[in-house]
Design brief:
Number of helices: 9
Strand order of the largest sheet: 4-5-7-6
Helix content: 40-55%
CATH topology of one domain: Alpha-Beta Plaits
Structural class: alpha+beta
Distance between the termini: 101 Å
CATH architecture of one domain: 2-Layer Sandwich
């Protein structure tokens, strides 16, 4: 009988350990206590502002159950207690006038989330607010973000490292339109959480919706930059990507962002350690139709697909191997000497 004692004890111990593990696991999966939230705005609110506040609660605080009472200027919401507390804090900041210069930050007790309320005091209208939101979503990968137009505010929720990057972008945007800017690229000090680098550029000589969109298309198409967006009122653009791609894109942008007049230099960039060249052909006396025809000729005659043109400044940007770029040079030389 004694020979069976230890196996029985061992079996009981195993059962006990499994039971404890199960209880711990079940406790870890127990959802947070639910709570009800009620917020009454003390400042006058429109139907639009109340709807935006409700969207902030749903999108940023992750509280899908939100009701609006327009007559009473109140919001009621329900969800996990820590998210309800977060939502209450957000609404209080949006309802408090005179706090535009304060650092408004809330740290969630669960996870590593941080919430910031930023006031873009120099935005000039809804388009600029939407562009700021899109830039933060696209370049900084911020998913939990929304605006509150009545206060020219943006509410952001992100992990701590992502929030630092997002705040850096906001700082570059939050300056007066028409202020004295220069074309020196602003580099984000450090790598983003993806390991990529980021730059912010003020477009001192590229202006107008068409020119800005063409510049974006050049950087996306020729430069392979996907994380990029513009802010029209300054104007400016932000971009993020691998360092090699960002260096190439910065070169293109600096060349295209020159003052009007003759463009000096060879306008050729070689990617370090690769048979990968980028050439800018600055054009004189070129019409939109003529540039489109030249671009088609280059694509057809060189099999290059990374090519696009701008009208202001008038230029065609081509990227390919050394042989492809040489073929593009020959094609441009045959088209009435359009290339400088």
């Amino acid at each position: 009988m004694r020979t069976q004692l230890f196996p029985r004890v061992s079996g009981i111990a195993s059962i006990f350990a499994a039971l404890v593990s199960s209880l711990v696991s079940a406790q870890a999966q127990t959802p947070s206590a639910s709570a009800d939230g009620l917020f009454h705005f003390t400042t006058a609110q429109s139907q639009q502002s109340l709807q935006e506040a409700a969207t902030i609660l749903r999108t940023v605080a992750n509280l899908p159950q939100v009701s609006i009472d327009i007559q009473q200027s109140t919001l009621t919401f329900h969800g996990p207690s820590e998210q309800v507390a977060m939502g209450q804090w957000m609404m209080a900041q949006l309802d408090t006038k005179g706090n535009e210069g304060a650092a408004l930050q809330y740290t969630s007790p669960v996870g590593n989330d941080v919430v910031r309320v930023n006031f873009l005091t120099h935005t000039t209208g809804p388009q600029q607010m939407q562009e700021a939101l899109t830039m933060l979503r696209t370049v900084a990968d911020i998913a939990r973000i929304f605006n509150f137009t009545a206060r020219q505010a943006i509410v952001i929720r992100a992990k701590s490292a992502d929030m630092v990057f997002a705040e850096w972008i906001v700082d570059q945007l939050n300056i007066p339109a028409g202020g004295k800017l220069d074309a020196t690229p602003r580099a984000y000090p450090g790598a983003t959480t993806s390991g990529y680098v980021a730059r912010f550029n003020y477009l001192t000589n590229i202006s107008g919706p068409q020119a800005i969109q063409q510049a974006l298309t050049v950087l996306r198409t020729v430069g392979d930059i996907r994380k990029i967006f513009n802010y029209s009122s300054l104007p400016a653009l932000a971009m993020r990507g691998p360092e090699t791609d960002i260096d190439r894109a910065e070169w293109m942008l600096q060349e295209l962002n020159q003052p009007p007049g003759p463009n000096a230099g060879t306008q050729v960039y070689q990617t370090p350690g690769a048979d990968d060249l980028t050439r800018i052909f600055f054009l004189t006396n070129a019409t939109d139709q003529g540039m489109a025809a030249a671009l088609t000729a280059i694509r057809t005659g060189t099999t290059v697909r990374k090519a696009f043109y701008m009208t202001k400044p008038a230029a065609i940007v081509v990227r390919g191997t050394a042989d492809q770029i040489e073929a593009a040079v020959q094609i441009m030389a045959q088209r009435n000497g359009l290339a400088d």
